[in-house]
Fold:
Amino acid sequence: MKKGYFGQWGGMFVPEILHETFMQLIEAYEAARADSTFWQEYLEVMANYSARPTPLTYAHNLTKHFGGAQIYIKREDLNQTGAHKANNVMGQGLLVKRMGKKRVIAETGAGQHGVATATMAARFGFECVVYMGEEDVIRQRPNVFWMEKLGAKVVPVRDGARTLKDAINEAFRDWVTLMDSTHYVLGTVCGPHPFPEMVAWFQSIIGQEARRQIIDQHGKMPARVYACVGGGSNAIGVFQGFLDEDVELVGVEAGGKGLDTGQHASRMKGDRAAPGVTQGYKTMFLQNKDGQMIDTHSIAAGLDYVGISPILADLGEKGRVRFEAATDTEVLDALTLTMRTEGVIPALESSHAFVQAFKEAPNMSPDEAIIINMSGRGDKDIFTIAKAYDDPSWKEFIISQADGFRK
Amino acid sequence: MVNVGVNKIATQAGNIRLMNNLEADLRDRLNKKPILLMTHLVLGYPSLDTNYEVIRQMAENGVDCIEMQIPFSEPMADGPIIVAANQKSLSKGITVEDSFQFAERVIKEFPQVNFLFMTYYNIVFRYGEERFIKRSTDIGIKGFIVPDLPPEEGETYIRISKEHGMAPIQFFTPTSSDERMREVAAIGGGFIYCVARRGVTGTKLELDTDLVQYLQRCRAATELPLAVGFGISSREDIQMLTGKVEMAVIGTATIRLVDEKGADKVASFMKKLQ
Ligand SMILES: Cc1ncc(COP(=O)(O)O)c(C=O)c1O
Structure:
């Protein structure tokens, strides 16, 4: 098979001006992969800087509540900056050091990947520019604050739908201009080769740990593993620990206001996506019959994207990963229950995985275990979550804060 | 109707090289003038009626090739002006079907111009590669410019294009090695589009020593005609390119002109350039 392809999906659809840049990146990536000291250094950085290995928490209250399968939660929320994004950016950061580049750029939707990249750049001494759709700059203002304080420049993108896909286009436009000094730290398992394969490699740390941990705690493989799917990096990360086992893998997409409303970001579940090629790779894209990308919606900015990893498109097509969708309302319910029963606060993105697990756990046997990948923590989403709950005392607080600033 | 349309020419090395329709036409024109002119526009921006008027004035004022860009929602290789033009065109509801029908009309009315489609690969892919190429051939399009389809990914597209006598235009860039240029040139047809500098469309060109050296590298890598673009806006720019390349490309400058001064200024602008 051609390099960078997963079944019929993937590829390297880059403008000619980036040809040499990609050749260099592929060379650096392949060299790192062949060099065991690189992975060793990566593990040390992740242990020392990002609290790895992250725990696999046995959720005994949720287990009791549903009375079915034993529920375990993989705690990616405990990473540096509160999400699995750290795994990818630290890996790419080490590669940037090897390549001798001094400037990094990134796209961000929720702001999580942007913040993670900004911390990495601060730590490694790189100049950092983050492209962010104007819509997301407004939705995720606290993350913009942190990126700026961490020394990154945040550039609002005013083209298109002003969300994640537009930020990716703008990052590519920067890259075709400054490719000599700059590495583009793509935030998920999408885009042209080698990004899907490379990001999946860095995220495989989740699955490697989870596999050891579930055997230690449960004594055998889990029956099912659940993960939310935006671009797909946390899902592929955890799934890689179980691909060769008799474990059912479940990817949960953003069902938004419902698959029948058109306001969602569900590519594999539902019938609005079709094969396409843009942003450097071939996958299932939400698009119209002419091939124009369409607007997506999700309560979780990190899942609000038109495409999906070519690796997941392939695993889905082959039936190895089952896809489901969770609606905005279901997500808030699952989030509430998880907070109240276990005292952990999943991100809105991660809560999608909880929704599907909660639907299925009651019908499973107590002899079986399931793992929910909690890709990130929700307290960073306080503005979005408080708004989604329409919380009255929070509103009062915001109003009084604003009044304070006006004086 | 499949038009195989290839002519044989002897290369400097004495080999026989196949020359497609478009290249043959450009060579003819080069017997009459020292440098050719290619212009660009985004279909549906600001409207198809304005596109028609602009094309008419270009055709009547010696433009040799026109790139008609079928708008796409993710124009990754374009700068702000063309990005905005793509979006505005789409928001008015321009479809791929509209683009084909419009193209068919202008090709019939202005046979003195070589028309090419410029677009992003997803438009071709969704329409169906073979179907897209075949319909383009049938209406008289001479070639395609697809900036996000590198030769490695475009094997089928290149093969089918060539079977239909179409030119699948390839790119040279300042970051291309000599070896890469030769590789790409071997696949290309019609002419080679030389990207003048790093960056997206619409950035200004200066003919500095770097650019001259780059164009010399381009020249050494192929016998196909060379077209160079990105930022050309005056007669001086074009004069400087004469003798170095075969075709000057005016991209963003006409869009800007039509935006600022209206379509009826295109004729005088085209005259002034030559
Ligand atoms: C907490 C969290 N989970 C999931 C995602 C979705 O990305 P992916 O599907 O690549 O894991 C994001 C993206 O921003 C995120 O912040």
